[in-house]
Design goal:
Layout: H1 2-25, E1 28-34, H2 45-52, E2 66-70, H3 75-85, H4 93-100, E3 108-110, H5 113-122, E4 126-130, E5 140-147
């Protein structure tokens, strides 16, 4: 009896593995950035999660983290949140309401990736994220956050 179902089971497992491989191969990256002279190293998704949830307030040099976000409706913010927290930004609203009453405010919100680049460049401790197509010499990439959300479609000319 098992011999009858075994070929079908192997086929399903093979197709599932192929689907996972294809979705991973099609995955994009979101670049996490800081100032170009930053000596920060050894980042992980857990460390980033703690910074962006304001559980880690100081970097290794004792400088206060200033995490930045795009607006909640921005497609890159949606992809970043899903990749890092496995939740949409709206799903973190209760968390931030609780943190606010403990004196912890959410990350600063900037209007665009260009605004993020400018803020990170000029502010010690600032940490943000951009698409690879917007990377330039003003910032340093400290982490490449993989995402299965398609984000390369949002690579357009920057607007100041």
């Amino acid at each position: 009896m098992i011999a009858l179902f075994l070929p079908r089971l192997i086929q399903v497992i093979t197709l599932s593995a192929a689907a996972v491989t294809l979705s991973y191969a099609a995955a994009d990256e979101i670049l996490v950035i800081t100032q170009p002279n930053s000596a920060l190293k050894d980042f992980s998704t857990k460390k980033l999660e703690n910074i962006f949830l304001r559980k880690s307030l100081l970097n290794d040099a004792g400088v206060r983290w200033i995490p930045l976000n795009l607006g909640t409706e921005h497609p890159l913010r949606q992809a970043f949140s899903l990749s890092l927290f496995k939740k949409r930004p709206e799903a973190l609203e209760t968390y931030w309401n609780e943190q606010y009453f403990q004196g912890i405010v959410p990350p600063h919100v900037v209007a665009s990736e260009e605004a993020m680049l400018r803020f990170v460049t000029s502010t010690a401790g600032a940490i943000g994220y951009i698409l690879p197509c917007h990377l330039d010499e003003r910032v340093q990439v400290i982490y490449k956050l993989p995402t299965v959300e398609p984000v390369e479609q949002y690579c357009k000319d920057r607007t100041p």
